[in-house]
């Protein structure tokens, strides 16, 4: 908590990628992060749509917010993390229409 309000991903200064997302896209990432930390069943997670998942900065942000252990105070169980990671990777793979154009590195 910061003061009397709950922390969000925009409160962390090292998360520069969030500035490249619209407010609605940032809210989608925040919702997914909250659901993930509440251990919601992976099939029920609000994973962003294909257009958003194709963006390398979104993929990096998902990693930083959900799977990078140094950024998580209380990380979920590793089995749950793996189940969610498989789901996210599957969605990213299915979002790729043209590998030459859709796969890039920031």
**Proportion of beta-strand residues:** under 5%
- How many beta strands in the DSSP annotation? 0
What composes the largest sheet?
A: none
* Overall mean pLDDT: 80
Structural class by SSE content: mainly alpha
Query: Percent helix among the residues?
Result: 40-55%
Number of helices: 5
Low-confidence regions: 1-16
Shape: globular
Counting structural domains, the number is: 1
Q: Could you tell me how far the N terminus lies from the C terminus, measured between alpha carbons in angstroms?
A: 31 Å
Query: What letter string, H or E per element, gives the SSE order?
Result: HHHHH
Taking all Cα atoms into account, the compactness measure Rg is: 14 Å
How would you characterize the overall build of this protein?
The chain has helices at 23-37, 50-53, 56-67, 78-95, 99-102. It is mainly α. It has one domain. The longest helix is centred in the last third of the chain and has 18 residues, at 78-95. The chain is globular, with a radius of gyration of 14 Å. The relative contact order is 0.14. The model is unreliable at 1-16 (pLDDT under 50).
Tags for this model:
single chain; 0% strand; mainly alpha; 106 residues; 5 helices; disordered N terminus
Short structural description:
The chain has helices spanning 23-37, 50-53, 56-67, 78-95, 99-102.
Reconstruct the topology from this structure:
Elements: H1 23-37, H2 50-53, H3 56-67, H4 78-95, H5 99-102
């Amino acid at each position: 908590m910061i003061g009397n309000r709950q922390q969000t991903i925009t409160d962390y200064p090292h998360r520069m990628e969030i500035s490249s997302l619209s407010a609605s896209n940032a809210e989608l990432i925040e919702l997914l992060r909250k659901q993930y930390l509440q251990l919601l069943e992976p099939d029920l997670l609000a994973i962003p749509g294909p257009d958003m998942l194709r963006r390398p900065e979104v993929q990096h942000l998902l990693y930083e917010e959900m799977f990078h252990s140094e950024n998580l105070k209380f990380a979920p169980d590793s089995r749950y993390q793996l189940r969610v990671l498989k789901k996210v990777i599957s969605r990213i793979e299915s979002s790729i229409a043209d590998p030459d154009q859709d796969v890039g590195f920031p």
